[in-house]
Amino acid sequence: MNAFLAAGEAGSTNIFQMIWPFILMFAVFYFLLIRPQQKKTKQRNSLLSQLKKGDKIQTIGGLQGTIVELTDDTVVLRVNDTTKMTFDRSAISSVLNSAPAATE
């Protein structure tokens, strides 16, 4: 009977030894891939929500302009004195110069 219990304990140890590398691999993936991507997504959403008229921005295509109008989904940019272009808000890559806050 003692031999039967010893065999059962050895089997549970082997299962833990088999699962341990998968747990370790998931932890590595989480800290090296998933968590940094979540931080980057949160930072990008923050950048897009803080846009305002007068900000100088750059699109993902490299076009630079000043925000003239904003809606929930679109941004109208003034590229030069006469040209205005409409982009999706998600097409904005970075803010080059932020406009001063409007005091009302």
TrEMBL record:
A Pfam family assignment: YajC
Keyword Transcription belongs to the record: no
Lineage top rank: taxon: Bacteria
Membrane-topology annotation of the record: Single-pass membrane protein
Localization per Swiss-Prot or TrEMBL: Cell membrane
Transmembrane segments: 15-34
InterPro entries in UniProt: Preprotein_translocase_YajC
This protein's record includes keyword Transmembrane helix: yes
Keywords: Cell membrane, Membrane, Protein transport, Translocation, Transmembrane, Transmembrane helix, Transport
SMART domains: YajC
NCBIfam families in alphabetical order: yajC
Family assignment from sequence similarity: Belongs to the YajC family.
Name of the protein: Preprotein translocase subunit YajC
